[in-house]
Amino acid sequence: MQHFxxxxxxxxNWQILVIILxxxxxxSTAAFITxxxxxxxxITKNSVSIVIYYLFYIILIFPVYQIxxxxxxxxxxQFRFFIAFEKKMLQSLKLDFIIKFFEK
Length: 104
Fold this sequence. Notes:
Largest sheet: none
Distance between the termini: 37 Å
Strand content: under 5%
Shape: elongated
Protein backbone atom coordinates (compact mmCIF):
# COMPACT_ATOMS: atom_id res chain seq x y z
CA MET A 1 0.00 0.00 0.00
CA GLN A 2 2.82 2.39 0.79
CA HIS A 3 4.11 2.00 -2.76
CA PHE A 4 0.78 3.23 -4.16
CA UNK A 5 0.66 6.11 -1.70
CA UNK A 6 4.11 7.26 -2.72
CA UNK A 7 3.64 6.72 -6.44
CA UNK A 8 0.18 8.30 -6.60
CA UNK A 9 1.00 11.03 -4.05
CA UNK A 10 -1.97 10.24 -1.84
CA UNK A 11 -2.19 10.11 1.92
CA UNK A 12 -4.70 7.52 3.08
CA ASN A 13 -5.65 3.92 2.54
CA TRP A 14 -9.21 5.13 1.99
CA GLN A 15 -8.09 7.03 -1.13
CA ILE A 16 -6.38 3.90 -2.46
CA LEU A 17 -9.57 1.90 -1.99
CA VAL A 18 -11.68 4.56 -3.71
CA ILE A 19 -9.24 4.86 -6.62
CA ILE A 20 -9.06 1.10 -7.16
CA LEU A 21 -12.86 0.87 -7.03
CA UNK A 22 -13.16 3.66 -9.58
CA UNK A 23 -10.79 1.82 -11.93
CA UNK A 24 -12.78 -1.41 -11.53
CA UNK A 25 -16.18 0.21 -12.01
CA UNK A 26 -14.94 2.20 -14.99
CA UNK A 27 -13.55 -0.82 -16.80
CA SER A 28 -16.69 -2.87 -16.31
CA THR A 29 -18.98 -0.01 -17.28
CA ALA A 30 -16.96 0.87 -20.39
CA ALA A 31 -17.12 -2.73 -21.59
CA PHE A 32 -20.85 -2.84 -20.88
CA ILE A 33 -21.67 0.49 -22.59
CA THR A 34 -19.55 -0.04 -25.70
CA UNK A 35 -21.61 -2.97 -27.00
CA UNK A 36 -24.92 -1.03 -27.25
CA UNK A 37 -23.10 1.88 -28.90
CA UNK A 38 -21.76 -0.46 -31.57
CA UNK A 39 -25.22 -1.97 -32.02
CA UNK A 40 -26.68 1.53 -32.45
CA UNK A 41 -24.37 2.00 -35.43
CA UNK A 42 -25.29 -1.42 -36.81
CA ILE A 43 -22.02 -3.09 -35.91
CA THR A 44 -22.72 -6.52 -34.44
CA LYS A 45 -20.91 -9.84 -34.48
CA ASN A 46 -23.46 -11.06 -37.02
CA SER A 47 -23.33 -8.04 -39.35
CA VAL A 48 -19.55 -7.73 -39.78
CA SER A 49 -16.62 -10.08 -39.49
CA ILE A 50 -15.46 -10.83 -35.98
CA VAL A 51 -12.13 -9.11 -36.65
CA ILE A 52 -13.85 -5.89 -37.73
CA TYR A 53 -16.24 -6.05 -34.76
CA TYR A 54 -13.45 -6.33 -32.20
CA LEU A 55 -11.37 -3.71 -33.98
CA PHE A 56 -14.24 -1.21 -33.65
CA TYR A 57 -14.87 -2.41 -30.09
CA ILE A 58 -11.28 -1.72 -29.04
CA ILE A 59 -11.19 1.63 -30.84
CA LEU A 60 -14.46 2.74 -29.22
CA ILE A 61 -13.77 1.46 -25.72
CA PHE A 62 -10.70 3.71 -25.34
CA PRO A 63 -12.53 7.09 -25.42
CA VAL A 64 -15.51 5.67 -23.53
CA TYR A 65 -13.17 4.50 -20.76
CA GLN A 66 -11.41 7.88 -20.57
CA ILE A 67 -14.67 9.80 -20.23
CA UNK A 68 -16.09 7.40 -17.66
CA UNK A 69 -12.87 7.45 -15.66
CA UNK A 70 -13.13 11.21 -15.23
CA UNK A 71 -16.86 11.02 -14.50
CA UNK A 72 -16.55 8.30 -11.87
CA UNK A 73 -13.44 9.97 -10.46
CA UNK A 74 -15.39 13.19 -10.08
CA UNK A 75 -18.30 11.38 -8.41
CA UNK A 76 -15.88 9.67 -6.02
CA UNK A 77 -14.25 12.98 -5.10
CA GLN A 78 -10.93 12.08 -6.73
CA PHE A 79 -11.10 14.22 -9.87
CA ARG A 80 -7.66 15.79 -9.36
CA PHE A 81 -6.04 12.38 -9.19
CA PHE A 82 -7.81 11.09 -12.29
CA ILE A 83 -7.24 14.19 -14.43
CA ALA A 84 -3.52 13.98 -13.59
CA PHE A 85 -3.62 10.25 -14.37
CA GLU A 86 -5.30 10.95 -17.73
CA LYS A 87 -2.72 13.57 -18.67
CA LYS A 88 0.15 11.26 -17.80
CA MET A 89 -1.39 8.35 -19.71
CA LEU A 90 -2.10 10.44 -22.82
CA GLN A 91 1.46 11.75 -22.75
CA SER A 92 2.85 8.24 -22.53
CA LEU A 93 0.69 7.23 -25.52
CA LYS A 94 1.97 10.28 -27.46
CA LEU A 95 -1.57 11.69 -27.50
CA ASP A 96 -0.70 14.79 -25.49
CA PHE A 97 -2.09 16.99 -28.29
CA ILE A 98 -5.51 16.11 -26.84
CA ILE A 99 -4.48 17.69 -23.53
CA LYS A 100 -3.27 20.82 -25.27
CA PHE A 101 -6.55 21.06 -27.20
CA PHE A 102 -8.59 21.16 -23.96
CA GLU A 103 -6.27 23.52 -22.10
CA LYS A 104 -6.90 26.40 -24.49
